[in-house]
Amino acid sequence: MAELLFLLLPLAALSGWWIGRRGHVKKQEPGIFELPRSYLKGLNYLLNEQQDKAIELFIQMLDVDNDTVETHLALGSLFRRRGEVDRSIRIHQTLIARPTLSKEQRALALFELGQDYMRAGLLDRAETLFTELIETEPHVEAALQQLLDIYQQEKDWDKAIKISHQLESRTGESRRAIVAHYFCEMAEQSVRQGEPAKALKFLKRALAEDRQCARASILEGNIEKNAGNDKAAIKAYLRVEEQDADFLPEVIQPLIECYRNQGRINEMVVFLRQSLAKHGGISLMLALSELIRQERGDAEAVEFITDSLKQRPSVRGMDRLIELNLQSVKEPARDKLQVLKDVTDQLIANKPVYECHHCGFTGKHLHWQCPGCKRWNTVKPIQGVEGE
């Protein structure tokens, strides 16, 4: 109730202004002050908790003219923030229908209505309005941003690329890294449609936009690997280290498979040792420990993991160390180790793997566009004792 009263304060003030404006037309006796009957009726609705009727009546009382356009816009915006999009749409549509609006006022009302449609999920209507507004100052940049949001939601990557180029030309701010992700999205669509050759062309364009696009290299490696082109896949996967070493965990296992298929597993061991020395990371350490175990046995792997954990503690590393020791110990030590293994298993199962560096969103799956803040390439593997 208090929130609604606050909402209606501008209307009450305007009603007072309306009364004062007309006060000079008709002289009244001293001490006599009359409120419009509609205003009193609206207050009666409000006091009787008939809020919908009160709001509708107050809106009707607020005539649209040059003095009240801003109040209408503010009221519509407030309704939208409160989630009452239908009312906001009605206010802005009423504004736009007024022939007395200036060009600037109409453009602002159109922009507000476009945001209403976005909030209501009416993306086609919002697109029409924002497309009109990209020809009107000073709303060009804001309208382009809204259109970009629409095309991303609709996964219309061709249009998203076009709008990104327009934004880049207008603002001077490079959007090449984001455009590279749009091409990667198109590549993934092509893969799902059974067109890997077309996907590779999109990935080539992605890398032309941004040579540091690790996602493009990962996708290229996956496509080549699935096609049996292990040598080409290895070349693509190895680029990830220089592009963004944080994503090395995403390519370690497929790289091992490709090197093994090529009979070059020793090269993988060298790569893991060098990468581990430069970048660290539990995924690299565990992958290397497994190759050591396969070549030299469990004891060597246990020794390697133990030495690594002394330098960089890790829950995942401890879990693997316990697992290897469980195979060699006897009762009752085995039961005690099993308890520890159950604890580390639970810790790993309940912890997210990825985190957005911008908004803090966490999850178990890699999202190239953060589901929380909608930014691109901000979600990466979590570092530290419970992560990499």
Task: Give a count of the beta strands, DSSP E runs of length 2 or more.
Answer: 3
**Which overall shape is indicated by the principal axes computed on the Cα atoms?**
elongated
In quaternary terms, these chains amount to single chain
Query: In which range does the helix fraction lie?
Result: 55-70%
Q: How are the strands of the largest sheet arranged? A: 2-1-3
Computed CA radius of gyration, to the nearest angstrom: 32 Å
What is the CATH superfamily of the domain at 2-23 and 34-168? Tetratricopeptide repeat domain
Distance between the termini: 51 Å
CATH topology of the domain at 2-23 and 34-168: Serine Threonine Protein Phosphatase 5, Tetratricopeptide repeat
Give the structural class: mainly alpha
Q: Which stretches are low in confidence, meaning pLDDT under 50 for 5 or more residues running?
A: 9-14, 16-35
Mean pLDDT figure = 84
Q: Please summarize the sheet with the most strands.
A: 3 strands, antiparallel
- The SSE string, one letter per element, is HHHHHHHHHHHHHHHHHHHEEE
Task: Give the tags.
388 residues; mainly alpha; Serine Threonine Protein Phosphatase 5, Tetratricopeptide repeat; 3 strands; elongated
